[in-house]
Design brief:
Blueprint: E1 2-7, H1 22-28, E2 39-43, E3 49-52, H2 58-64, E4 78-82, H3 88-91, E5 103-107, H4 109-116, E6 129-133, E7 140-143, E8 146-152, E9 176-182, E10 185-190, H5 198-204, E11 209-213, H6 221-224, H7 246-249, E12 258-261, H8 275-282, E13 285-287, E14 293-294
């Protein structure tokens, strides 16, 4: 099994186009690494690849990956795309894949319904791109030799579907994690998650790798930095630090590798020299970076 982190940033990436915070300015100046928006590619055999989520930055991400280059005049090693939610930073890149290239598009019925309601996504010709509904907790073959299982994690509906009241701990088809297995290895990809309940700790225990939601270091960091009016909890993301954060919640869970992904531009973890980064690394975590390859 081989995994490539195509994008390690949250929505907007790093630097975000309209943000002049310390991290964004440092990324513009080359003092810390830039991050494109969230997504991974995965293969069990090195030939047939699946994308998990399709960010607005997908074109440049594909161009940067040697594994995903066309092998002939027209074609692609991408056999399928799997979506974990309907957020813009996870689905907008589908429009990049509208060039008449066949692949399977996997998602839950709830996420497919969101896509179907957007007329722009009709550019993905249904005679070429097959949309396949997935039931939760039912294993399926994502690419040759690679099995996947979707399972609900605490989350919320996409921002553009929010009403007056928002349930940020919603459990259902709107936000899912993915369990991936191939060649005796087991990996979890959970880029969006609002809390870490006990059943989730039990499910991921013993995995060869966990790629987990690292959006915010602290729940109120965007408020404190003057970058927004929402807490991480309100956005449907568990914070890394704090008594209910993922750092403590997952500290004693046995995992061969643990990697934070989907990092917001406000998060001090994006700065390799920050004390927060040192604390995470001391606890056994890596911070995902664009182009990072993982062979569990």
């Amino acid at each position: 099994m081989r995994i490539v982190i195509l994008g390690s940033g949250a929505g907007g990436g790093l630097p975000q186009w309209n943000c002049g915070c310390r991290n964004c300015d440092a990324a513009r100046d080359g003092r810390i690494p830039a991050m494109s928006q969230s997504g991974i590619a995965i293969s069990a055999n090195g030939r047939d690849w699946a994308l998990i989520n399709a960010s607005p930055d997908l074109r440049q991400q594909l161009a940067a990956s040697v594994h995903l280059r066309p092998q002939r005049l027209r074609g692609s090693p991408i056999r399928s795309v799997l979506l974990t939610n309907g957020d813009i930073d996870h689905v907008a890149g589908l429009l990049t894949l509208r060039e008449g290239q066949p692949f399977d598009l996997y998602a839950t019925p709830a996420i497919h319904a969101v896509l179907a309601a957007n007329p722009m996504l009709a550019a993905l010709d249904p005679q070429v791109v097959t949309r396949r509904d997935l039931a939760l907790d039912q294993p399926f073959q994502l690419t040759p030799g690679l099995m996947a299982t979707l399972f609900a994690v605490p989350g919320k509906v996409p921002l553009y579907l929010e009403g007056d009241e928002v349930d940020t701990g919603l459990m259902g088809e709107q936000t899912v994690g993915v369990e991936l297995s191939a060649n005796g290895r087991r990996v979890f990809y959970i880029p969006g998650c609002a809390s870490v309940p006990g059943w989730l700790r039990e499910r991921i225990a013993g995995a060869d790798a966990l790629l987990f939601d690292g959006t915010l270091w602290s729940d109120d960091e965007m408020l404190r930095e003057g970058l927004g009016r929402k807490t991480g909890r309100r956005m449907g993301h568990v914070s890394v630090s704090g008594p209910e954060g993922s750092l403590d919640a997952l500290r004693d869970v046995p995992l061969r590798a643990r990697i934070y992904v989907h990092l917001n531009n406000s998060n001090p973890l994006v700065d390799p020299s920050s004390p927060e980064r040192a604390a995470a690394e001391a606890a056994g975590w890596q911070v995902g970076r664009d182009g990072m390859e993982i062979v569990p």
